[in-house]
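Section 5: illustrative case.
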């Protein structure tokens, strides 16, 4: 039972269920942690460390912050684990955290990522450094114009956490050692446009697209696995139009998805002619093929996440 503290105070309620062989656990949204790694996704309550996948049913009673921010992520995880839910579906916003969980649940490679409630973050630096290595990326859960920074010391971590009044939560994420950073425009299930960043540094991996330092690439000459990963990422989120930011891990060769946005910069940036041409061809296909239908795409709170610089 999430955010059902009031009900939990009624001893008779829990006693009656216990007598019927039903265990009831009350937790708040501030007692939920999320881990995404090479072994998949794990969402746990932080009091005993129990995985939510071990419960038979999860119900949400109230939606105080940051509940709505996390609900779609919880919903996707619980659905993948076959856990029944009450008052969870269709409420949360499709945040960056939700996208990572949806993509990981569908077998796509995501940099190791940790979400902890704000109250647990101040004492978590050493554990995060051990899990993610140094430096790691610290970013806001919702994306958009939120902060994204490289953290390489405990002092820098404390400084980033100094002002959290208007922040719904942070994600700590592995900085993937890169051997190629690409932006792919996926239109109607096809990688129609691609850019490769010429220089690979922390700025690229923090998803701050600088097209002045990127080269146009023929999508047909890209690694087929990169194209397939981009298309699968867009399809997994129900996006018929998407900008996908990929990085190839320099030691494993795996393509990691850093971001998927349904608001790619088609009409701005120095490659407007190329993106507009690809988009025009896509529209012609969509208008002339009566069998194509829009997937049940999800809105995105990050409408500026991949905005090109003029």
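Designed sequence:
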């Amino acid at each position: 039972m999430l955010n059902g503290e009031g009900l939990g105070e009624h001893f008779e309620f829990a006693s009656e269920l216990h007598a019927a062989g039903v265990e009831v656990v009350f937790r708040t949204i501030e007692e939920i942690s999320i881990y995404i790694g090479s072994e998949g996704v794990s969402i746990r309550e932080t009091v005993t460390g129990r995985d939510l996948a071990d419960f038979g049913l999860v119900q949400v009673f109230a939606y105080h912050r940051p509940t709505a921010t996390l609900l779609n992520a919880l919903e996707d995880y619980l659905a993948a684990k076959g856990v029944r839910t009450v008052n969870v579906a269709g409420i949360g916003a499709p945040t960056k955290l939700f996208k990572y969980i949806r993509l990981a649940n569908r077998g796509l490679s995501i940099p190791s990522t940790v979400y902890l409630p704000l109250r647990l973050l101040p004492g978590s630096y050493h554990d995060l450094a051990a899990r993610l290595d140094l430096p790691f990326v610290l970013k806001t859960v919702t994306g958009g114009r939120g902060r994204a920074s490289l953290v390489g010391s405990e002092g820098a971590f404390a400084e980033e956490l100094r002002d959290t009044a208007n922040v719904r939560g942070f994600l700590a994420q592995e900085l993937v050692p890169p051997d190629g950073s690409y932006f792919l425009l996926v239109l109607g299930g096809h990688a129609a446009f691609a850019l490769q960043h010429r220089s690979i540094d922390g700025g690229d991996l923090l998803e701050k697209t600088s097209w002045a330092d990127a080269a146009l690439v023929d999508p047909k000459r890209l690694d087929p696995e990169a194209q397939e990963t981009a298309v699968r990422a867009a399809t997994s989120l129900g996006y018929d139009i998407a900008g996908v930011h990929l990085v190839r891990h320099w030691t494993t060769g795996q393509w990691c998805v850093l971001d998927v946005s349904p608001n790619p910069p088609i009409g701005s940036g120095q490659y407007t002619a190329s993106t507009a041409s690809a988009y025009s061809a896509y529209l012609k296909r969509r208008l002339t093929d009566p069998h194509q239908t829009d997937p049940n795409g999800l809105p995105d709170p990050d409408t500026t996440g991949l905005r090109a610089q003029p």
